[in-house]
Structure formats: C-alpha cells, structure tokens
Amino acid sequence: MSSMIAIILSGIFFLLLSPTCSGSKILVVPVDGSHWINMEVILRELHSRGHEITVLRSSKSWFIPSNSPIFTSINVTMLQDESDLDYYNKMLLNVMERRRLPTFLRSFYQQHLITSMLSQGHEILSRASATMLDDPVFMKKMEDAKFDLMLTDPALTIGVILGSYLKLPMVFNVRWINNGEGHLTIAPSPVSYVPVSGSELVDQMDFLDRTKNMLHYIYSSVELHFFINPYYSDLFQRHFPPGTDLLSLELAADMWLMRTDFVFEFPRPTMPNVVYIGGFPCKKPLPLSDELEAFMQSSGEHGVVVMSLGTLVSALHREATEAIAAAFAQLPQKVVWRFMVKSRHPWGTTPYW
Ligand SMILES: *[C@@H]1O[C@H](CO)[C@@H](O)[C@H](O)[C@H]1NC(C)=O
Predict the structure, then answer these.
(1) Where on the tree of life does the source sit, at the highest rank (predicted)?
(2) Is the pLDDT of residue 345 over 80?
(3) What is the rounded distance in angstroms from the CA atom of residue 346 to the CA atom of residue 172?
(4) What mean pLDDT is predicted for residues 116-134?
(5) CA 322–ligand 1 middle distance (angstroms)
(6) pTM value?
(7) Binding site membership of 72 for ligand 1 (Cβ less than 6 Å)
C-alpha cells in the first residue's frame, strides 16, 4: 500500500516538474500526392514536440491515411473526390504530344493545356470550399476546436480560404501556388532576368527570349485574374470583406516555408517571412540491400543513373520510353528506373524494377 502511495506521489512530483503543456492545436490542410510526402515529415516533427494535429483529407485520398498515430483526420470534400490519379498520366502524354511543335510556340500550347487543367481544378476547389463554409455544423466544429494555427500547402486553395475565414495565423509549406511558383506571388520577379515557370527559358535571355518571357508573365496574370479568381468571387462575396481575392488572402499568410534552396534559385527579391527549407526531408542514408549494393558496385567508376518521374506519373508513351532506353543503353552508367507496366492483374499498374 505504502509503495503504491510512493508511486502516486512520485508520479505527481514528476507531473509538477515537467514544464506546463505548451503544445498547440494545429489544423492542417495538405495537398495529396508528392506534396503529402513532405508535409508528413513536418507533421511527424510537430507531433514529436507535443503538438496536437488535425488533418482535413478527402475520404478518397490517394496517400493521406484516415487513421494515423500522429494526427486525427476529418473527411471533407476535396479535389480527389472528382479527379483520379490517372489524370496526371493523361496530362503528361498530352504535353509530350505538343512538344513536337516549334519551340517558340509549344510552351504557349502547353500553357494553354495547363490553363484548362487549372480551370477545372479551381472550379472543383471553389465548390469544395463553398461546401465547407456554407455548412454551419462543420464550421461550428472548426470554430469550437479553437485551433492555434493553420498549416497548409497553398498549391490548392482550400486551406488558405478556411484558415483566413477562421482568422488563424497561417503557415505555408509551399513551392507552387495558384498557377505558378511561389516566388512570383510573394515578391516581384523581374521578367528580364527571371524566367516564368513553364516558359522553358533560362536566365540568359536575348531580346526574343525576354519578349517571350514577358508574354508568359502577362499570360499567367491573365490566367489568375480571368480564369481562376472568378470561380471564387461568389464565395468571397458571401463570406469575406469586399475586395477579397485569392492573392489578398495568400499575401496575408504569416510565414512561407519555401521548399527550395536559394542557391538553386534565380537572383530576385524575396521577403523576410520566407524561410528556405529545401532538402528538409533528407535523412541520413541507410545502407543498401546486398543485392542493390552489388548492382551499384558493378557499375565501377562510372556510377549509376536514377531515373524517376516523380510520385504521380507512371506512364510515358512507348516511343518516348524506347528513346530513353536507347539513350541509356549508350551510357557506361547502369540505370535504376522504376518502370510501371500495365499488368494483367485486376488492380492495374504494378511497379517493375
Ligand atoms: C473517412 O474516410 C475513410 C476512407 O478514406 C473511411 O474509412 C472512414 O470511415 C471515413 N471516416 C468517417 C468518419 O466517415
């Protein structure tokens, strides 16, 4: 009995010793796919420091789990409810088709394709945001939860809109936003020196290149103001002060964790609330499996090429695949290439190494 009391007392003693709870309640609206892979790294770290995390996800999410030891999740309507993973493969094949056009024109054609994709996406996102804000039960739940912070990836707009509506301090985990690279939104990027994303230009531009860059810049402003913003105007009129648009909400975010490193960037102005976090998911490497180690060593002094199409893209058309394979065949390096082929299994694509 006395030992029991001793245990209880020492328990209380340790409770008193430990610093007062300083965990925050963080609302997270992530973007699915590869964006989730890096957001999860941040969430693990926040969780290990005692913060309480709530993640909004689609019930049809591709990567974001419903049950997790590090966060609680709430199912809401998001982009995934109306678009599927294969969309990105189709998009890539479409873009590659257009690459047969002359250089000056093709990036505008590609841009046109991307505009139609963005339009569709923002139409879905604006409806999903309206569903959320027009649902008094859901919004009361969000308000009663008394979150301290919104952490979101502004590549998609739901988190920005919800966080602004709830008047939460907002932190962005960002690289892409609305229709371009984050830097183009937060600070002026001189078009004579900084190529607009998608223009396929580099920072050494002659007069024709600069003209092209300027056209891309104008195009992306037109795209934002005339093809993206209008989807949200009804929502903004009903729920936000007059004059609100996507940019005004985004520029009010408190901190931008930018997923790039300035050494890879073009010289251009940035802002004091931008923190460069490029490379943060890198961990200390683990030793390779024996089989892979032997493969690597067998390439000798030449080393190995790793070919990756990212997280969502798994298909190139046959002609491109064969051309790349033929080019690899001429290299002294060995190649590691995750190659997805349609299998006969009912569940579709399976990886082949
Ligand atoms: C949320 O969605 C998942 C499927 O992704 C489902 O298993 C789960 O039951 C849903 N949760 C609620 C509360 O509806």
Answers:
(1) Eukaryota
(2) no
(3) 39
(4) 93
(5) 42
(6) 0.84
(7) no
Residue 68: name the closest of 40, 45, 27, 42 by CA.
40
Mean pLDDT calculated for residue range 265-287: 93
Residue closest by Cα to atom 14 of ligand 1: 75
Q: Look at ligand 1, atom 11, and give the residue with the nearest C-alpha.
A: 75
Cβ of 75 below 6 Å from ligand 1: yes
- Residue with the smallest CA separation from ligand 1 atom 7 is 66
Q: Mean pLDDT check: name the lowest of 61-70, 159-168, 190-199, 235-244.
A: 190-199
Interatomic CA distance for residues 312 and 84, integer angstroms: 11
CB distance 297 to ligand 1 below 6 Å: no
Q: Separation of 41 CA from ligand 1 center, angstroms? A: 23
Contact 292, 207 (CB under 8 A): no
Helix (H) or strand (E) holding 36: helix 34-48
Q: How far apart are CA 161 and CA 167, in angstroms?
A: 10
Q: Report the nearest-CA residue for atom 5 of ligand 1.
A: 59
- Cβ–ligand 1 contact at 66 (below 6 Å): yes
Helix (H, G, I), strand (E, B) or coil at 275: strand
Pairing type for strands 72-75 and 149-152 reads unpaired
Residue 45 contacts residue 17 (beta carbons within 8 Å)? no
Separation CA 322–CA 327 (nearest Å): 9
pLDDT at 2: 59
Pairing of strands 176-177, 274-276: unpaired
DSSP 214: H
Q: What are the structural domains of the chain?
A: 3-276 (3.40.50.2000), 290-337 (no CATH)
Contacts of 248 (CB under 8 A, 6+ apart): none
Report the DSSP beta bridge partners of residue 150: 27, 170
Q: What is the 3-state secondary structure (H, E, C) of 222-259?
A: HHHHHHHCHHHHHHHHHHCCCCCCHHHHHHCCCEEEEC
- Ligand 1: which atom is nearest the Cα of residue 75? 1
Rg (CA), the chain: 24
Q: Which has the closest alpha carbon to 183: 268, 272, 280? A: 268
- For atom 1 of ligand 1, which residue has the closest CA? 59
